[in-house]
Amino acid sequence: MKTQEGRTPRMALGKAGEDAVCEFLSRNGHTILDRNYRAGHLEIDIISLDGNGVHFVEVKTRVAPTPTRPGEVVDATKQNRIAKAAARYLASRKSNPLSPGLEINFDVASVVFENGDIRIEWIPNAYYPMFF
Asked: Are the beta carbons of 109 and 121 closer than 8 angstroms?
């Protein structure tokens, strides 16, 4: 079933999690460069910039109770898909490049909604893609 905005409850939950992470990142010195960046069938939830470089952020959102932490489901296949999308994003910025020498960070943000509370677990440099 879809909401009035055309989203399924799962999509609405994911957007709420991404909104919470964007607020968290902004409060912690990040500038949000892009959200839901798509390159064909590849997607990156959030792309941000801070003093440590550019961050490609995968957001996993759940409602408690959850058997595993949401960030634990970002497996090697998902990591490789995000890395491919990141390479395409960086290549697409040739006309407006980011500063040379910026670090590239692959992060995971885990969001759990429970009884009106939001828990965000930020995992900077959660993984290092093999080919990047």
From this structure: yes
CATH topology of domain 9-123: Trna Endonuclease; Chain: A, domain 1 (3.40.1350)
φ/ψ (deg, to 5) at 33:
-90, -35
52, amino acid identity: N
Distance CA 60, CA 82 (A): 13
Tens of pLDDT, residues 7-23: 798 899 999 999 999 99
Q: Give the pLDDT mean for 60-79.
A: 82
3-state secondary structure of 97: coil
pLDDT for residue 1 is more than 80: no
The torsion angle over the Cα atoms of residues 126, 75, 47 and 39, rounded to 10 degrees, is 150
Structure tokens at 117: 């509370």
Question: What residues contact residue 102 under an 8 Å CB cut-off, 6+ apart?
Answer: 49, 53, 54
Give the list of residues 6+ apart from residue 90 with CB closer than 8 angstroms, or none.
54, 98, 104
C-alpha distances in angstroms, 72 versus 12, 36, 110?
21, 20, 9
